[in-house]
Design goal:
185 residues, mainly alpha, 5 helices, 75% helix, elongated, Disease resistance N-terminal domain-containing protein, P-loop_NTPase, nucleotide binding
């Protein structure tokens, strides 16, 4: 009887660990996207800071520039507030992770079978990371020829005006904006 109860408890634990491992793999793929977003936000904040420094010198001359600089400054403060809230959330998640890890150590929950399934999850997330849409070989891209030609024409450095150009590539998520920009610029 005790063996049956122990066997049932063990199988339930293995199932729970498998579900947790799947959830961890999903979280990992989300975290990869978050890292890319953090890099983007960092670059945007640096650009905003450079703009605000330049606008500070000219704000007495141009009222429109002054208003725009105030809006950019407010936006940068809002972004910093959001990042602060995110870091608090990450810190609380880290504490939860440490608690779960300590519980595992205390009760010796991870068995050899669970360790191998965690290794499988790690291998799976590594496969996902290596097949990210931004890492696709250009020969595999379909339907990008016209957009690629238009983008290259827009950033032609040999144009006669000699001005610095900024191009925004916009659209719904998953359409390939990042891939298009990274592969062609």
């Amino acid at each position: 009887m005790a063996d049956t109860v122990l066997s049932m408890a063990r199988s339930m634990l293995v199932g729970a660990i498998s579900i947790a491992a799947s959830a961890a793999a999903a979280e990992m793929s989300l975290l990869i996207g978050v890292q890319q977003d953090i890099w983007f936000i960092k670059d945007e904040l640096a650009t905003m800071q450079a703009f605000l420094v330049a606008a500070e010198a000219m704000k007495e001359k141009d009222m429109l520039l002054k208003v725009w600089a105030e809006q950019v400054r407010d936006l940068s403060y809002n972004i910093e507030d959001c990042l602060g809230e995110f870091m608090v959330h990450v810190a609380s998640q880290t504490l939860s992770l440490e608690e779960v890890s300590n519980r595992n150590t205390r009760y010796n929950l991870i068995t050899a079978d669970a360790s191998s399934s965690i290794d499988e999850v790690n291998s799976y997330t590594e496969d996902i990371r290596s097949h990210s849409a931004s890492n696709i070989d250009e020969a595999e891209l379909v339907g990008f020829a016209k957009a690629k030609q238009e983008l290259i024409a827009m950033v032609d450095v040999n144009s006669s005006d000699g001005l610095c150009k900024v191009i925004c590539v916009v659209g719904m998520g998953g359409l390939g904006k990042t891939t298009l920009a990274r592969k062609n610029i």
